[in-house]
Amino acid sequence: MLFSMYAMSAALLLWLLLAAVSGVPGEEVDKRPNFVLMMVDDLGIGDIGCYGNDTIRTPNIDRLASEGVKLTQHIAAAPLCTPSRTAFVTGRYAIRSGMVSEGRVQVLLFLGGSGGLPPGETTFAKRLQQQGYTTGLVGKWHLGVNCERRGDHCHHPNQHGFSYFYGLPFTLFNDCLPGENSDVLADLQHTLKDLSMLLAVGLITVLCVRVCGLFEVSLWLLVPLFLLCILATAVWYVPFVLLQTWNCILMRNQDVIEQPMELDTLSERLLREAQHFVKKNADHPFLLFLSLAHVHTPLFNTPDFAGKSRHGRYGDNLEEMDWIIGKMTETVDSLGLANNTLMYFTSDHGGHLESADSVVGQKGGWNGIYKGGKAMGGWEGGIRVPGIFRWTGRLAAGRVVDEPTSLMDLYPTLKYLAKDTQPDRQLDGYNLMPLLEGEVVRSEHEFMFHYCGIYLNAVRWHPPGSDSIFKVHFFTPNFSPPGAGGCYDTKVCLCHGEHVTNHNPPLVYDIFNDPSESRPLTLDTEQRYAEILEQTAKAVEKHQSTLTDEELSDNTAQHGVPGQMTWDKILWRPWLQPCCGSFPFCRCKENMTQV
Ligand SMILES: *[C@@H]1O[C@H](CO)[C@@H](O)[C@H](O)[C@H]1NC(C)=O
Ligand SMILES: *[C@@H]1O[C@H](CO)[C@@H](O)[C@H](O)[C@H]1NC(C)=O
Ligand SMILES: *[C@@H]1O[C@H](CO)[C@@H](O)[C@H](O)[C@H]1NC(C)=O
């Protein structure tokens, strides 16, 4: 009896002691940080105050940089949304998951296509989910939805580790706002439209001839002509004219909640959802990926920002985006989470130079001193983006890192901080914490490979012990008109065939001394010239040898991985189309009173 009383009080004492040490009775506080990752669409590095812009107001982004670490050589793994985002969430070049294209279509074009991030891929969200994190994606996905039938959701964010999804399974694009030009295969649309017209005119002529009795026209000619006319119209009209209905939708998890989506309230709804997610999960490790629809065309604005900037509709949209970043920072800070939350700000690739017209003026981002832009895999303007990390109390305020870093580094960095030590696949990123904390001064990225579609466009080499950043271009896009600095005739540059000029020997620049890539190095001007070609060739060989032994092996396609961007996977299929209500009359509006 006495013994058991002793035992009980000893146990009580021990319990009290433990509780006092850990702060919370009975359980240990989970000290792993939260993550708030904010990605802007098509933002240029030259658009931001703390990256040198003096006419755009981005006080909230600038504040994040002054309270954290700013990366000046932060590189996207691809110059377009779908492959860049693939590499971002998987920590590997998009070629490893087949999310690259041989031809002109390099992003997913229809939600009713079957291509997308393969179900067997692993994302940082999936890894963190396995570590007990609550994971959410608010905003744009653009990595596919269905494989074989509507609702199988094999590529959906919920399937890829995000336990909560609210947002755009596709992307914002011009077709979401009636009256803007179409972004999807405009020339094909015109050809199909002309063909339908031609057939219709032919049909009417033949009908007239028959009705007027000018000639005897057999019914056998009329019937096929009529059917052909219907078919051509359907093939043109159904997928293309209804693009807004098919692609501009909002989902909450597995449900389509708005179709087509209302743009006027989109910003506030994305912000509200992101804030709500943070508040709801404040006492448990969480990952929020806020993937903004800004600053992609058609540049919608809420009235508070319209006409306020010095750079037209583009500037207004950008300043609204900055305001959203400020609201997110405020939310994290007001909940007392700043010391335990790693906040990250970036863009998926460079600004779209060719996006401009005589009415609105500039509609795409500004890449500062860097050459080229969106869709150009080799030129710096297509891939160098802002990169800011803030974690008060852990990362030194105001530090600047000039070393090469990649968006693919997020995956291993998040894993490291979430204490995930399980084995993984071949990754192309590195844990950034030693560099961010100033424990090391050199980046682990001695080489970086710059893809344009499936093609290796350029290689970056940061030789040990040197400041130089050599970039070796195997091909460059053909600008149109020549010398224009962009591909204005086609609206985006392409990576294949007659759209590029191959260089043998390759074009070499030192972007440490010549960041605008304007003075190619030669044997005479650069003493390391031969070494640069030799070292990069070796690195390419080594890199390519890692592309074959993938776990997703299927020998029907490139590098053993089934290609996700082939025409048959890209084109619209009615039976894959996400839809609310009954197909094909998909139409619904979010019930705002529910939230
Ligand atoms: C600032 O950004 C605007 C909008 O993209 C751009 O037009 C302008 O040239 C930029 N200014 C500087 C100094 O980079
Ligand atoms: C955050 O960390 C800093 C520096 O370690 C400290 O001064 C501050 O009090 C902390 N804030 C909170 C809310 O814990
Ligand atoms: C919206 O949601 C509220 C609350 O759940 C419900 O009472 C209302 O009937 C819904 N409205 C519509 C139009 O579905």
TrEMBL record:
List the GO cellular component terms. endoplasmic reticulum
Residue spans crossing the bilayer: 195-212, 219-243
For this UniProt entry, which residues form the secretion signal?
Answer: 1-26
Instruction: Write down the Pfam families for this protein, in alphabetical order.
Output: Sulfatase, Sulfatase_C
Sorted alphabetically, the keyword list is: Calcium, Hydrolase, Membrane, Metal-binding, Signal, Transmembrane, Transmembrane helix
* Superkingdom assignment: Eukaryota
Which GO-annotated molecular functions does the record name? arylsulfatase activity; metal ion binding
What are the required cofactors?
Answer: Ca(2+)
Q: Which residues form the Sulfatase N-terminal domain?
A: 33-414
What is the similarity comment for this entry? Belongs to the sulfatase family.
Q: What is this protein called in UniProt?
A: Arylsulfatase D
